């Protein structure tokens, strides 16, 4: 029995490495190139800075990955991050920090559930639904703050937010531990639960899932709900790290998350991809952003490079699917 399990593990590992060969090679090349371009890149301080910088992207990308697995997409993630970020800072004015965080998470989850409800029940294209929510949630964030960032450093609960955004445990930033926990939870959800199998099945063949008697509407809503929750957590982490809840936070985040998921081998058609690939994709983009910042490259060339990466990733994904 043990031999069978070991054999199964080796086969799965080989298949995973084969499937993720290109993203892993790209990641290694990025590390080599970055270390050549800047001697600071491999320093301990920069490594810790990198794992902190990617915290929000990693958490939100987990939710985006689940949505894309079903063949959907969530363009509202950046706006939900901004809204939940300003809400937690605003709630700190009059509520205990624990309740402020829970309420911000609840708002993000409800927005995600609303997106999923419209997509699943009314069968409106997720691109349209989440594009509308992108503007709506961002508008609420600007309205709530009157377009002025909320600084929480002098508010009750500031000690906890400072700890969350800047503390370390055994030399590891708390933010890094949180995104690591989110990766593990996402992996366990998709790999070992009924929900995970149904999510993959919906992306693989939605009609077959429907004919099997599964409540398709409910299960298509859940990924968007989880995406909203991930956005809320990401918004709280970003607010804790920056020391301010800003309505401009998360601008363009949806592009980064989509790029990370696709770079990691997921398919826009759904049903294909794994958590490890998304993690690699986030690290690739994080390293690119990090080295460009170290080299003082202006923001606009960075945006151009991200656009190029997204197109290249989609092309590679399409080629990979045609070969299978």
Low-confidence stretches: none
Structural class: mainly alpha
Strand coverage percent: under 5%
Number of helices: 15
How many beta-strand elements? 4
Mean pLDDT: 87
Question: Biggest sheet, in brief?
Answer: 2 strands, antiparallel
Instruction: Report the helical percentage.
Output: over 70%
Order of helices and strands: HHHHHHHEHEEHHHHEHHH
User: What Rg do the Cα atoms give?
Assistant: 20 Å
- As laid out across the biggest beta sheet, the strand order is 1-4
Shape call:
globular
State the distance separating the first and last CA atoms: 32 Å
Summed up, what is this model?
The chain has 324 residues and is mainly alpha-helical. The protein is built from 15 helices and four strands. A hairpin with a 2-residue loop joins β2 and β3.
Verbal overview:
This protein is an all-alpha fold and 324 residues long. It is 77% helix and 2% strand. The protein is built from 15 helices and 4 strands. The strands form 2 sheets. It has a two-stranded antiparallel sheet. The protein has a two-stranded antiparallel ribbon with strand order 2-3. α4 runs antiparallel to α12, α4 packs across α13 and α5 runs parallel beside α7. The radius of gyration is 20 Å and the shape is globular. The chain starts with a helix and ends with a helix.
Q: What would the keywords be for this entry?
A:
324 residues, mainly alpha, two-stranded antiparallel sheet, 15 helices, 77% helix
């Amino acid at each position: 029995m043990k031999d069978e399990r070991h054999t199964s593990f080796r086969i799965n590992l080989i298949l995973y490495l084969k499937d993720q060969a290109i993203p892993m090679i790209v990641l290694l090349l990025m590390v080599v190139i970055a270390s050549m371009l800047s001697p600071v890149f491999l320093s301990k301080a920069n490594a810790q800075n990198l794992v902190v910088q990617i915290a929000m992207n990693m958490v939100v990308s987990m939710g985006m990955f689940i949505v894309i697995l079903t063949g959907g997409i969530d363009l509202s993630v950046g706006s939900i991050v901004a809204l939940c970020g300003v809400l937690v800072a605003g709630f700190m004015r009059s509520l205990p920090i624990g309740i402020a965080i829970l309420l911000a998470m609840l708002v993000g989850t409800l927005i995600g559930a609303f997106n999923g409800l419209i997509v699943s029940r009314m069968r409106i294209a997720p691109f349209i639904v989440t594009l509308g929510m992108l503007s709506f949630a961002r508008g609420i964030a600007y309205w709530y703050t009157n377009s002025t960032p909320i600084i929480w450093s002098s508010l009750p609960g500031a000690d906890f937010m400072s700890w969350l955004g800047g503390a370390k445990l055994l030399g590891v930033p708390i933010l890094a531990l949180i995104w690591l926990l989110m990766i593990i939870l996402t992996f366990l959800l998709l790999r070992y639960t009924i929900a995970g199998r149904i999510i993959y099945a919906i992306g693989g063949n939605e009609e077959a899932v429907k004919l099997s008697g599964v409540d398709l509407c409910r299960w298509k809503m859940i990924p968007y709900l989880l995406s909203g929750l991930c956005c809320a957590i990401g918004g709280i982490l970003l607010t804790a790290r920056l020391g301010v809840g800003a309505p401009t936070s998360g601008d363009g985040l949806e592009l980064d998350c989509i790029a990370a998921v696709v770079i990691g081998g997921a398919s826009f058609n759904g049903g294909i991809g794994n958590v490890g690939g998304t993690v690699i994709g986030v690290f690739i983009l994080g390293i690119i952003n990090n080295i460009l910042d170290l080299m003082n490259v202006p923001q606009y060339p960075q945006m151009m490079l991200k656009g190029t990466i997204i197109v290249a990733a989609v092309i590679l994904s399409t080629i990979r699917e045609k070969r299978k």
